[in-house]
């Protein structure tokens, strides 16, 4: 801003973004619609798609350095149905896979399609 290369601290961009949201009717109609975050089975995509910050390689399994434990997590309809800690990585993965079979794929015999 001082040398003239930057014209705004970011406030102008925020204003333009807010105006763009107001002018885009399709976007405005979908604000707050959580159905867009779910796949065809009604399960949130974040539960079945591996994120780029996932270092364990398994969705829903993470390592806590402080506790020196592996954690297996699964949330269904806003409630944790699996929230356990394990010393062994393989046990955590097995617990997560069993919970997926029990809660996510109980109506079908195959994986959720995204």
Describe the structure using short key phrases.
114 residues; alpha+beta; Single alpha-helices involved in coiled-coils or other helix-helix interfaces; 2 domains; three-stranded antiparallel beta sheet; 4 helices; 3 strands
Outline of the structure:
The protein is an alpha+beta fold.
Describe the 3D structure.
- The protein is of the alpha+beta class and 114 residues long.
- It has two domains: 1-31; 39-104, Single alpha-helices involved in coiled-coils or other helix-helix interfaces (Up-down Bundle), CATH 1.20.5.
- It is 33% helix and 18% strand.
- It has four helices and three strands.
- It has helices at residues 11-23, 25-29, 45-48, 89-104; strands at residues 61-64, 69-76, 79-86.
- A three-stranded antiparallel sheet has the order 1-2-3, with helices on one face.
- A hairpin with a 4-residue loop joins strand 1 and strand 2 (69-76).
- The radius of gyration is 21 Å and the shape is flat.
- The N and C termini lie far apart (44 Å).
- The model has no long low-confidence stretch (mean pLDDT 81).
């Amino acid at each position: 801003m001082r040398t003239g290369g930057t014209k705004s601290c970011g406030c102008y961009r925020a204003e333009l973004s807010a105006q763009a949201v107001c002018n885009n009717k399709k976007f405005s109609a979908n604000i707050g619609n959580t159905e867009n975050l779910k796949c065809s089975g009604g399960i949130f995509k974040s539960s079945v798609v591996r994120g780029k910050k996932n270092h364990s390689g398994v969705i829903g399994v993470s390592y806590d350095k402080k506790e020196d434990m592996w954690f297996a997590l699964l949330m269904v309809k806003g409630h944790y149905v699996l929230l356990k800690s394990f010393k062994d990585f393989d046990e955590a993965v097995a617990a997560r896979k069993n919970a997926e079979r029990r809660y996510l794929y109980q109506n079908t015999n195959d994986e959720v399609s995204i």
